[in-house]
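INFO  loader      accepted 1 record
INFO  loader      residues=269
INFO  predictor   begin
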Amino acid sequence: MHMQRWITSIVALPLLIWLILETDPLLFAAFIALIYILSLLEYYRMVFPASDMEPNLLMRIWGGIGGLMLIAAALTHVLQWVIGALALNVIGTGFVAVLVFRYQNDVVPQAMKQLAGVLYIGLLLSFLVLLRNHPQGIYWIFFLLAVVFAGDVGAFYAGTRWGRRKLCPSVSPNKTVEGAAGGLLANLVVGGIFKVLLLPDLAWGAALAGILCIGIAGQAGDLFESVLKRTAGVKDSGRLLPGHGGLLDRIDALLFAAAAAYMLQSLAG
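INFO  predictor   done
INFO  writer      dumping C-alpha cells
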C-alpha cells in the first residue's frame, strides 16, 4: 500500500506540475473544476444513503453547479463574485427544496448536506484558483503544495518511528501527537526552503507563522475528512487513486490549507 502511494504520486506529479506552470489560468481552473466534481461525487456517496441517491438527484446536481459557479467566480479574482456565487447557491437550494418537499419530507437535512458539500469542497478549492491568479501565483501554489506534502510525509514517518500518544483516537486511531509534531517540523523546514527559493520577498516572521497555520489547517482538514468517513462507516472516500483511496482522501489536508495560504498571501500583499 505504501509503495502504491509513492508510485501514484510520482506518476501524477508531471501532470500536476504542467498544469500549474501552464500560462492560461483558465486551464488550471478547469482542472480544479474537475477535481471538484470528482470529489463531490465521493462526498455524496458518503453523506447520502444509497436509497436516497435517486430522490436527491436534483439537489445533488444543483450542488455540482453551485461549486462550479464558485470556481468560475474565483477565476475573476473578484471576492464579491465569490460571495454572490455562494448566495446564489443558497437561493437555488431553497428553490429545489420547495420543489421536492411534496415528495420528500426530510428535504431540509438533505439540503444542509448539499450546502455543506459546496462549502467544504467547492469554496475551499476556489482558494487555489484565487492563489493562482496572484502575480506570483505559480510560486504560491508550489509553496503550498510543498508545505502540505512535507507535513503529510513528516507526520507519517515521525508517527511510525516515534508515535506513542494518540492524537484523536476516536477519529483516527493511527495518528499520534508525535506524528503531528513531526509533520509541523517538516512543514517549517520545507516551507522555509521553498520560501527562500520562490518567495524571497516574504517576511520571515509572516512566513513562519503562515507555514505553521497552513500545517495546522492541513492536519485539521485530514481529521475532518476522517470524521466524515467514520460517520459514513467507510475506510476511504473512494478508489480512484491506488494506495491513497479516493480523491477526497488525497486533497483533504489541501482544502483547509489552501484557505490558510490565501490568507497569508492576502496579508503579504
